[in-house]
Queue: 2 jobs
Job 1
Amino acid sequence: MKIAVIGSGNIGGTLARKWAAAGHQITLGARDPAKAEVQETVSRIGAGTRATTIRDAVEDADAVLFAVPGNAMSGVVEALGTALNGKVVIDAANNIGAPVANSVAIIQSAANEASVYRAFNIYGWENFAEPEVGGVRADLFYAGTDGRSRQAAEQLITDVGLNPVWVGGPEKAELVDQLLRLWFTLAFEQKKGRRMALKLLVA
């Protein structure tokens, strides 16, 4: 799969490395593709990874991951507009402190033919780098479009080493965000640390 990763920080960089290792073709989309930090991430990932402008990365992609600061999502998404249509679009950005932490509605408004998913936002990046905790494979709870595109989204989650757990359509994005708040509470307020993840058990 051709994946555009928008944001090359800890989340974007870690997921890009995992997907490249699984055989996906990665393009980092950046405002300044020549920036030293972006080029360093490209070098670390290897496997034919390249960096280009955000629009060029998106136009050539099957799937798009947004891992930019949450308060930047509105501007980035609106600038892309319908270029996101027909693609699997993953919102991993957290707009902490805003009334709504996710940008699902913003993406849907800009590109109503995109398949939008709220995923990769409930854990710290360390759990994407090492998805097993105490020898147990962590679950990743996510929400988004049902149907054929959901299979692609679940494949991307599986390729990182996590077990996908779908909680419903895009309207359930805020339910996923509640798990982000739970993770923050347990990891920091309860001092369980960032290497902490969730598991669904069904009888």
Job 2
Amino acid sequence: MTLVILAAVEVLFVFGGIILFIWRLQYTFPDFAMILLGFLVLTFFIHRDRISDLGFGSRGFMMGLKALALPTLIIAATLILVGIARGTLQTTFFTADKLSGLARSFAWCLFQQFGLQSFFTNRLLSIFKHIGRAAWIAAIIFAAFHVPNPLLMPVTFLGGYVLSRVFISSRNLVPLALSQAIIGSLLSVVLPATWHHGLRVGPGYYR
């Protein structure tokens, strides 16, 4: 019971800290991000999380890849067709520069999934002891980090749920980050910038 209460306090603290950083502290106290990350990593030692529990290593890689390959392919193909129809997806999208941008996007998505899954989903699962409930709350948390972007909020809510379910069953972050990076990159190119505002969130959305 003590660990459950501790996990709940940790979730509330990190969630509140990230919201505060997005909306204010990134402009007034950017170093707070490192403090928050340090706290998050400290919780792994407190709860004695194993590396495999956090989603690192080879365990579950193929399982996660198989689970996400088809839905990612379908969504990506749909976005590509929309891009071709709108004339927004050109051959320049597949240049070396754009592909290196996709690699940077993957790194950022891997970091996001590390926070969402290794911390939030794991803690929520320890609190509620129910896979579906933990995944839905993780999805709400993920969507909350993307307020007020009207495109990213529903995408991250649904995507957050699916990715959390896959993570719980596979325990590997890489397939999740790959799926997010591919779909996110295509969304930013295919859809009008007035819809996604450069995938920005928080106060940056209005700039």
